Amino acid sequence: MPPTQPQPRGSRRGSPQLRLRIGFLVIAMVLSVFGARLVQLQGLDPNSYAAMAAAEGLVEVDLPATRGDILDRNGKPLADSVDGLMVVADPELTTEHAPELARLLYRRLHVDYVSTLAKLREEGSRFEYIARRVPATKATEVVAAAEKAGYDGLDTRQDPLRDYPAGDVAANLVGFMGTDEPLAGFERTFDDQLSGTDGSARYEVGGGARIPLGESTITEPVNGKDLTTTLDLDLQWYTQRVLRQTVEDARADSGFAIVMDRQTGEILALADDPTYDASEPDQADKDNLGSRAMQDVYEPGSVEKVLTISSLMDLGLVTPRTKIVVPPALVREDSPIHDWFAHGTIHLTLAGVIAKSSNIGTVLAADHFKQGQLYDYLRQFGLGEKTDIGVRGETQGLLPARSSWTHQMQDRIAFGQSLSVNGVQMAAAINAIANGGVRIDPSLIEGSATTDDGDQVGTDHTTEHRVVSEKAATEMSRMMERVVDPEVGVAPGAAIPGYRVAGKTGTAQAVGAECSCYDGSFDVSFAGFAPADDPRFTVYVVVKNPRNGGGGGSVAGPAFKKIMSYALRRYGVPPTGTQPSRLPVDW
């Protein structure tokens, strides 16, 4: 047999063509597996896998809207927003050192330790809020301190911080913010307008950092709208300082002062004392957080005589020269009426009754009213109902129902007792006399704004109506000029050199909160306007429970003078150059 030929070397491994076919088959099988998996992910069950991805690496955060500013009439901020930061945590990175990090945050940011610890350990979360609206410098320092201590996972985000650059100026009206919500004043009343709408951002993270090309969805925030008030910041500041000094000098419990533009009814200043710094409301006594001028009720005392006498003159029942015999006391039913000063029988004109502030003379004049007439006038002056100017908690005062009036009740209401008012109510009533007998709704907001209760307020919504005739208002003004006359009046300290001033003092027994009875304390006041023959401003000052023995003329009168003088200078109001009233006060 011929020898066997050797096989070609490598024949056991197959031919190159065979190996190539096998390789292609393997590759095809692998690609088929990947393709099937891709179909499953993208076509058959996408939602479950998207949810898993979100749980693993998607973060959603708020994008805070910038809160609208609260401005004075000249655009100066009473409240605005400044740069602030929120401190946030990634629990995946903070869990390991959560107790130590929670203690650091508790010491630096004063956040609750227990809840913070829980957030730092939140299983499955990649984003937790630790503190909101932190001053930028402080937030940055806290994050840096954590990193220096070797604790990862803290970061910051933009979070505008509320600021009150005017401090205590108009704080009783402006109010303040809590951490995440408005708590008082305009901040709360007009929150819907001021707050705007927060946006949001959703994005992927990996390894503690945002993935540049990962999923990213942003809904931009809508910033809040500004709120412009009628207040004049500089006049408000000055009014508050005068009021504070007045309250301190009189050793009084509290006080308030109001400045109104006679022509428009706009409130240029509304001061309360004691007050507080809106930047540090937690340092204030809670009784000082609201506006006493709007939320307290009190008996107006003799300032109310202006309304009584002007109503009588409007009816044509009396004139400034009506003669009245004023006895030492007036016995009415079981309760005699006295004047604040002792006297025998004196002969006063009606102008003299106002100049001397005689209770007895006022009551005798009021005898000319028919049943219900004085009540109707006081309602027209705005007493017994809220002004609705946008201050939460405003009281409506107390004007007894028409049907309940007795002759004795009318006597006391005629000189300012047995009824209650709030400060702005009374200021608006006196302003009606300054405005020629036409009452204009007071306002605190420029233009138009809607409260969170749905009420529209502001200068665009004010109304006016005539209460008394122009003649009656002019005669009343001339009578009020005699009050500050140093020769015959009870409040020479309210006179302003070079200007004609019309005013009226008030002293009223105060009703105690505990007994709901006269507790022996008094409220004193002064209301007036200038120039008397062409008024520009109405100013009303009330001081509660002065302990220095002073009355409306000696305590509130000088404060009126300072505030009115400043307002006249600030707005460049010249003296009219006419002669003051010389109406006779006796006969």
TrEMBL record:
It comes from the Bacteria. Pfam families: PBP_dimer, Transpeptidase. Residues 255-564 form the Penicillin-binding protein transpeptidase domain. InterPro entries: Beta-lactam/transpept, Beta-lactam/transpept-like, PBP_dimer, PBP_dimer_sf, PCN-bd_Tpept. Its main location: membrane. Keywords: Membrane, Transmembrane, Transmembrane helix. It is found in: Membrane. Residues 63-179 form the Penicillin-binding protein dimerisation domain. The chain crosses the membrane at residues 20-39. PANTHER family: PEPTIDOGLYCAN D,D-TRANSPEPTIDASE, PEPTIDOGLYCAN D,D-TRANSPEPTIDASE FTSI. Belongs to the transpeptidase family. This is Penicillin-binding protein 2.
